[in-house]
Structures are given as C-alpha cells and as structure tokens.
Amino acid sequence: QSFARQLKRARRIVHRQMNDAPRSLELAREALNIAERISDRQASCSSRLLVAEAYLLSGDAQACASELQQLTEDSEESTDLAVTGEAERVRGLLALAQGDATLAVHHFGRSISIFEIFGDRYRAALAHYELGRAYASSQPERAAEHLTQSAHTFSELGARIALKHAEEALEALDRTAPE
Q1: Cα separation, 164 vs 156, whole angstroms
Q2: Which of 35, 155, 164, 168 shows the greatest Cβ crowding within 10 Å of its Cβ?
Q3: pLDDT in tens, 124-156
Q4: Nearest in space to 64 (alpha carbons), one of 35, 10, 111, 21
C-alpha cells in the first residue's frame, strides 16, 4: 500500500475509535508518523490534531496542549482554513476540559466561523455541538440553539452517530433545565 493510502486508512480508523482513547492515540500517532515520513504537511497537521484530541480523550490535557503548541510551531496554521478550524475546535475542547467555558466558547465560535466560511457543514455542525456543550451549564437557551443547529445539520447530512450525540445532549439539557 502507498503511504498516502495507509495514512487515509489510519485517520479513518482513528475517527471511528475515538471512544477507545488508548487505541485512538496509538492510531493517531501512526497516522502522524506516516504523514511525516511522506513529508505531507497538510496530513501532518491534521494527524497532529488527531493526536492532540486523542490525548485529551485519554485525560492528558498537558500532552494535548503540547501537541497544539507543536502544531503552532511547525505549521503555518493560518494559511490552511481546515487546519485552523480544527485547531480552534480542539483548543475549545481543551479549554472545556480545563474548566474554562468562556475560553471554550471563544474557540468554538471561531471554529464555526471558519467552517461556515469554508463551507464545511459537518465540521461547522460539530463545532456548534461543542459550543452547545460549553453553554449547557451557564446558558441553557443558547446551548439548545447550538445543539439544535448541530442536530439539524447532522440529520441533513446523514451523520447518524453525530446526530445521536447531539440528540442525547439536547435530552440531557432538557433533564437539567429548571421547571
């Protein structure tokens, strides 16, 4: 198999394995190694974001922050909208994990703006979902708006797993809403 094909396969598997943090971290590192071996800057940046997110899922916020810092140092992130939008989303996830919902809202909002400009409906919906989660405890009405937006888009796109997560977040929001 070509390196590019191996890289695409590894990245697909990582996305499917995100509920298994150790396995997703292993696969994300593999994707990063392949991308670096074939000197594909775009793939390296995307893979480094997968590694950062996998670290976060593993509960290692510091390693996630290190990967994001390395991404900033290694790339011209601002010239690639897809990488910039994903980096903002992962920075938002990190801020949320560190208990800073205000900073998380800032990063998720930037991610939404980038992906809406870029025309990437799925990633914009994913950022809306994360923004809804960030607002859930402090501004449930705004959370519901963003979660509903994400659910609508996921439904239109046929993204069943993402739709299920958005619907579950909306149900959880309804259960915690004051009567």
Answers
A1: 13
A2: 35
A3: 999 999 999 999 989 999 999 999 999 999 999
A4: 21
